[in-house]
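Subject: Sanity check before I submit

Could someone independently write out the structure tokens for this chain? I want to compare against mine line by line before I put it in a report. The sequence has 186 residues.
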Amino acid sequence: MNGSESMKKTRYLDYLPSVYQEDRVSRDFLERYLSIFENILSRLESQIEDVPRLFDAKETPNKFLPWLSTWVGAFRDENWPEEKWRQFLSRAVELYRKRGTKAELNELIKIYTGRKPLAIIERALLKGDNQEVLDRLFGDKYSFCVVLWSDQVKTETDWKVITRIIDSEKPAHTKGSIAVIVRPKV
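---
Independent answer below. Compare away.
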């Protein structure tokens, strides 16, 4: 038995007054008796030391992601890749402070697509002589359009996820839509 094992084995005994260590036979019995509790409790202590990792979105094991998501009231869309979901969870509290704003939509879309939208255009802020054209483009006064590059919406799944982001994060009285701009080939 090396020195570190002996030190670990007698650790609990060291917490007791020296009177319990004077008689060699009694000390040996007490040391073995306390080692039972030390074995059990040391395993529990190591599990407790690891608990903070479960609350870190970037570090928690995959099986704990759904549980961690419930702590911020988020339910993972199965189409979100794990890495992007972890990124969202690590910023969820910060993003919820901006809930229902352009800033939050910009950040959420950036987390999912890798870039912010080209623009978020609010119908109510557009002024012009031809309100009829604006009404045709946007519909009602409380609508907005998220303008994205085509490489941000590569698949139908991307379209669905971004639509869900917009629908779940927009103010209740508004209507959001997506417009995709194709980059010209040069």
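---
OP: Matches mine. For the report I'm noting this point. The CA atoms of residues 114 and 152 lie 8 Å apart.
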